[in-house]
Amino acid sequence: MASTIDDSNLPKTHKACVYDKPGSCSIAIRHVETPEPGPGEVLVRLTHSGVCHSDYGIMMNTWAHLPAPTEEGQVGGHEGVGFVAKLGDGSERAGVKVGDRVGIKWVSAACLACPPCLEGMDGVCFNQKISGYFTPGTFQQYAIGPANYVTPVPDSLPGDLAAPMLCAGVTTYAALKKSGANSGHWVVIAGAGGGLGTVAVSLGAKAMGYRVIGIDTLSKKDVILDSGAEHFIDVMAYDDDGIANRVRELTGHGAKAVIVCTQSNEAYGQALGMLGFGGIVVCVGMPEGDPKPIARSYPAAMVAKQSSIVGSAVGNRREAAEVLDFATRGLVKFPVKTVGMDELQSVFEGMAKGEIRGRVVLDLSK
Ligand SMILES: [Zn+2]
Ligand SMILES: [Zn+2]
């Protein structure tokens, strides 16, 4: 049976930003065919999409662990917010209706049957589909998502604030939860001025009650303090031991956790030295290029200080709902710049130079 929805207003084609020369920083604006949702799928009319550093990695083919190079014509993006425009057959059984506000995130589809899914960790599903790599992503006006896996988005949260919650928000929230920190604990955010970092600082300080130290380059100082950090440390002003000493000086005994939000192997190498007793390093930022082990992970020191290193990738469906709730209540404040679709290439160019503060969001109506 066909969809029960009047789709007379749906276009045949729509505007999309595509990777026209994967491996280089190049975006073409094209009109692509608006797809029909298949059984169990919904078509989402997207209003906003955040731009994440992972999109840049996929465009540039710098993520060594992905199974194949990115194809020409791929539409990137994985922080999409919009409204359900059409239901595929059987989709109503997932409880979604036309007009519902939903989001599409990094894991655009999960199998809900593999070992991580059965543990409630669908964000690391072994059979996941990555939006903007395996499936056409959210840098376009319409995209398909599974009816049972799109994320409900509160109506009162503006689209440009909602979109970054679907990757940066859920990723940093899940990482902060994994840190084992309680309110009042010291938490260091490495790479605190970037797209993940500012959200992590804000969530940690305002929503979760941590005492936050942000580390980054001097040009990011104001944005880090404005996002809620109690202290800023200029990464360039210290060597590796010096930066750890500075954290111990500020905290007394070292931090409860260090959340590494940057792609820098050096930042990972500095992190263990900042921890106090029983502290945890949470790995979030994905280093590009040849994989390297975390420097200075000396077993004797880790045994003596009972340190741990854990990995954290995005988050599950419940964490996505929780972080959207924090944002709706005004507890996640970070800089957002909203631009039109034709500015995506220059956003990526700025990202490559480390010039982006906070999050850039595409307004997909422009
Ligand atoms: Zn992302
Ligand atoms: Zn799974």
Describe the structure.
The protein is globular and about 65 Å long. The chain contains eleven helices and 18 strands. It folds into two domains: 13-166 and 315-363, Alpha-Beta Complex (Quinone Oxidoreductase, Chain A, domain 1); 169-311, NAD(P)-binding Rossmann-like Domain (Rossmann fold). Strand 12 (211-216), helix 6 and strand 13 form a beta-alpha-beta unit. The model has no long low-confidence stretch (mean pLDDT 93). It has 366 residues and is α/β, with parallel strands linked by helices. Strands 3, 5, 6, 9, 10, 17 and 18 form a seven-stranded mixed beta sheet that branches. It has a six-stranded parallel beta sheet with strand order 13-12-11-14-15-16, with helices on both faces. One zinc ion is lined by residues 52, 54, 78, 106, 167. Pfam families: ADH_N, ADH_zinc_N. Keywords: Metal-binding, NAD, Oxidoreductase, Zinc. InterPro entries: ADH-like_C (IPR013149), ADH-like_N (IPR013154), ADH_Zn_CS (IPR002328), ER (IPR020843), GroES-like_sf (IPR011032), NAD(P)-bd_dom_sf (IPR036291). Belongs to the zinc-containing alcohol dehydrogenase family.
